[in-house]
């Protein structure tokens, strides 16, 4: 079976394994002290399978051919009974399409896989449009704040509509166009923000114990996932925010430019990078690791192993440091783990998130799609980092307050300082 790789990111980041399902009261959100659990974008492999949806449905009606343990006949009989009751007695008009979509979404939720989700055709189209790093929106990444259950603004992209409107990292979106977001799934939040019904959206933002409405215009947003510069002592610095389709090209351009400037060492900043495309990650690693070296491998439920190797002839050969934190996840952990295993880089920061599993997005013939976990991945030395993360070689902790200040002041960035100190030796 052929695999085509795809990512899910930008406005949406996936829910972590400790998703808080508690309902919260309306009013001022209350957060617990300490580090917030962020929701992460994931490493996704897409399986494209041609089949007849109707024929497949016919198959599951008669038997449980796939070993899921579901009694399909019983389920269909009960659904028919519920439909009959609702059709005869339910007071309001029934939105049949909405009911059907939520049946599928319920199946995904029933797997108890925090990364499993059913996407309607419009939702899946949004994700597909985002693969190239370009989409219609306001220029933010959001996550589920598990303490309040509200969506949190994880990052605001510079010079985009949300940035210009005054939205900031750490803001909680408590309502969209006056509709509460307290119990909304992230995909529903994304859809509400990006709705084509109007060219503006009103976000109710909770910040510093105060609530305020912000009107934000929508536009075509194109993102640069790689930023770089040459620092003092010919230390190159590259920050990677996501692994999009074109991130590997941007990364190669950055490395090549820094090399032309006489780069003597390199810092790769993967802090708050929630991951993305596997091929993008392996292409980037091929610029750093010698040809034919194994970069990562996966194993599915049957133990089938798939290896991914470096295929580049032009690798960087300078001392390196990789910066990581608790929000470094998935594809960015693959890069970190690989460089650490081969002692190509010193890892500085705090233990990474620990997402060592792979999801697949299965496109269906009606334009919808189904995502679920299919495999684990391992570092070249065979390390399983899932729910463990990668421990840094040099631990440097930063509080939320310090991290926030470091976004605009390099002098406040203790982890970056340590990286530079290591490379200057």
Automatic annotation (TrEMBL):
<feature type="domain" description="PDZ">
    <location>
        <begin position="124"/>
        <end position="208"/>
    </location>
</feature>
<dbReference type="InterPro" id="IPR029045">
    <property type="entry name" value="ClpP/crotonase-like_dom_sf"/>
</dbReference>
<dbReference type="InterPro" id="IPR041489">
    <property type="entry name" value="PDZ_6"/>
</dbReference>
<keyword id="KW-0720">Serine protease</keyword>
<dbReference type="GO" id="GO:0007165">
    <property type="term" value="P:signal transduction"/>
</dbReference>
<dbReference type="GO" id="GO:0006508">
    <property type="term" value="P:proteolysis"/>
</dbReference>
<dbReference type="GO" id="GO:0008236">
    <property type="term" value="F:serine-type peptidase activity"/>
</dbReference>
<keyword id="KW-1133">Transmembrane helix</keyword>
<dbReference type="GO" id="GO:0004175">
    <property type="term" value="F:endopeptidase activity"/>
</dbReference>
<protein>
    <submittedName>
        <fullName>S41 family peptidase</fullName>
    </submittedName>
</protein>
<keyword id="KW-0645">Protease</keyword>
<dbReference type="InterPro" id="IPR001478">
    <property type="entry name" value="PDZ"/>
</dbReference>
<feature type="transmembrane region" description="Helical">
    <location>
        <begin position="39"/>
        <end position="56"/>
    </location>
</feature>
<dbReference type="Pfam" id="PF17820">
    <property type="entry name" value="PDZ_6"/>
</dbReference>
<dbReference type="InterPro" id="IPR005151">
    <property type="entry name" value="Tail-specific_protease"/>
</dbReference>
<dbReference type="Pfam" id="PF03572">
    <property type="entry name" value="Peptidase_S41"/>
</dbReference>
<keyword id="KW-0472">Membrane</keyword>
<dbReference type="GO" id="GO:0030288">
    <property type="term" value="C:outer membrane-bounded periplasmic space"/>
</dbReference>
<dbReference type="InterPro" id="IPR004447">
    <property type="entry name" value="Peptidase_S41A"/>
</dbReference>
<dbReference type="InterPro" id="IPR036034">
    <property type="entry name" value="PDZ_sf"/>
</dbReference>
<keyword id="KW-0812">Transmembrane</keyword>
<feature type="region of interest" description="Disordered">
    <location>
        <begin position="1"/>
        <end position="29"/>
    </location>
</feature>
<keyword id="KW-0378">Hydrolase</keyword>
<comment type="similarity">
    <text>Belongs to the peptidase S41A family.</text>
</comment>
